[in-house]
What we know:
homodimer, four-stranded parallel β-sheet, 32% helix
Amino acid sequence: MLKPGNNAVIGQSGGPTAAINASLAGAISKLVSENSDNKVFGMSNGIEGLLKEKLYDLKHFFPEGSDGLSLPKTTPGAALGSCRFKLPAPSDDSNGIYRSLLNILKKYRIGYFFYIGGNDSMDTISKISAFAEENSVDLKCIGIPKTIDNDLILTDHTPGFGCAAKYVATVFSELRRDTSVYTQKAVTVVEVMGRDAGWLTAASALSRSAYSDGVDLIYLPEVPFSYDKLFDDIQKVWGRHSDVLIAVSEGIRLENGVYVGADGSTSDIFGHVKLSGAAKVLEEKIRSRFGCKVRSVELNTPQRCASHISSAADISESFDIGAYAVECALNGKTGFMSGIVRDCDSPYKTHFELFDIHSVANKVKGVPADYIDMVNSFVTDKALSYLKPLISGEIYPDYSDGIPKHFIFPKI
Amino acid sequence: MLKPGNNAVIGQSGGPTAAINASLAGAISKLVSENSDNKVFGMSNGIEGLLKEKLYDLKHFFPEGSDGLSLPKTTPGAALGSCRFKLPAPSDDSNGIYRSLLNILKKYRIGYFFYIGGNDSMDTISKISAFAEENSVDLKCIGIPKTIDNDLILTDHTPGFGCAAKYVATVFSELRRDTSVYTQKAVTVVEVMGRDAGWLTAASALSRSAYSDGVDLIYLPEVPFSYDKLFDDIQKVWGRHSDVLIAVSEGIRLENGVYVGADGSTSDIFGHVKLSGAAKVLEEKIRSRFGCKVRSVELNTPQRCASHISSAADISESFDIGAYAVECALNGKTGFMSGIVRDCDSPYKTHFELFDIHSVANKVKGVPADYIDMVNSFVTDKALSYLKPLISGEIYPDYSDGIPKHFIFPKI
């Protein structure tokens, strides 16, 4: 039960995912079911909108609670809108942001503050909860994680990763069928999102199954990239079949730390070095080396909003972790991120826990060494056991006139 | 009923699609149900494999007929393998291909010849049927159309287009949710396949619905492209909302006929002009002009093999047109392509007819002028009425361990 006279506010921040609205739905469901007279506000475009007092009355949109929330669960993006806004340190209020924030919290009688996002969003929550504590403001602050990058520490994995991973694995399984139709030697290089952590690229390994080769070679930002190794790897695969399918993280770097996608091999008419994208650069290098047919594919933004083929496991956890965060706040907890703890890979079992928000913010969790098969440029069985349950089960949106139905708030 | 002693052979050719195996399944279903002792051969890698006598015994793989064919129906690619092989004119057998072909047809006692493919494949069928007729060979030849480009003449549309169109429309609907999360002015340019015909790019218009803006602007190869018009269009959209979502065909050309993707603005370190891709070139031009956030996305090969979200209408028609082609051949028809005639847009109703194969081969059907809204850089209601039924209904593959199950022939 929400404390009387204490309203709640929730916002979304950072890059969109296919599951962030499921977490929003889970939190709303719990907040609305706390059958009190308190209000539940939604920040339009995160903290930016809160500072401009652009707020949705969420009980107005979802008076019936969870029954009305199935559409947001399968809507990608960030229904409330997002922002990229870095708060100053709580001790430095020279530009008056915290004073404004305090006034708005008082004006709207807000006692509960929820923020769904990645690294930067946890930084925001961390600062606001520290500020509230320092100024004796009674505000329960909980962060709800989301990122397709899966790079938050402490939590076993992040909501939103499973959906993106399922899409990536599915596309690789289909691309394998596509590339295998011809008989001549060919290479397809597919670039997957992930600047500093290779989790999503590693998920391409799930396309390999008993009946299909799936992806052949995987290059992650966690391992320094070498062209000699790449060329050797390709020739080894040609010993097995003619079409080589490669997954690379956008953030792969050479031994000297320079991004492959910015290795200077491409320039515009003015001679400026361009960040071509890792796959594009590899395409040219492989063509030069072998003279064979090479194609590069950049999965790009569709991989973070492909709600038309969501992981049921991810959507379910994303919804539940939203509800869990609310439950914890109602129980008086503050200054935490809700996270996932894995009890077992198979049968897959997890539970939720709270993690100190200050420990989580601004840190990056890469793919660990024992998940990476350096010799075969692939991932290990341990990685596969970790990844597999995260993409299990399918959840599809409703369709209207052949395209998915989505939930959309009116602009304010 | 197949004529006794007359075996059948079927092949796939050209670029893969999500529906070409549904047509194969439809043809096999009909051939196997013709409960005779005749054999049904599948060419491994089209005409190339036939010339090397690389043939599958399809009754061995599908003894039970249609019951065993549900997996191929949702498998993308070209299960038998494909090729790009241009036959010489039937009158010119200087390299002996037709003599070889004749020997193979005799050796395997082939009386029925089916070929599933696009323009080039219809050219192959056209030549083989002409050769058979000129040499009094009793061979019934029928072409079964497929191409995501939808650019074959006479047929109302091509099998495979609906699946690709549904994926494109779905991705645009999701990208709209993704692009709309921030408030600053931004442009996203998405490149869709289609070198000479803009059908697939036009299908992005289906992402616009009562509840979502979907795509804002559409540029097709049928209309000479102008940067001034593009910049004007973008500013008009900014009058309505901050994020502009644009669809461009890979084949858009300037007034002077030069591909936008090869307009010379990008060169490699050796100064060679590179075909950067139309969206990439537009990204740079728009950024230079407006200084705003711009992103380019190339949908690339995933759009032609996205069986995880197929159009039920397309898969159903693709299966049926395969069966229809067989039925026609059994009735003694030869030298035709099976095609689709539309009786009504709504309720959608079609029937199949045969079209003279020699009239179909090597011709391209573009998007007609009355389907294009030049003023608003969009498509007309007439185009929408045409496109809408082609993406209707959803058909999903079975999944195993979180990824789609596919049908795969062993390599021969």
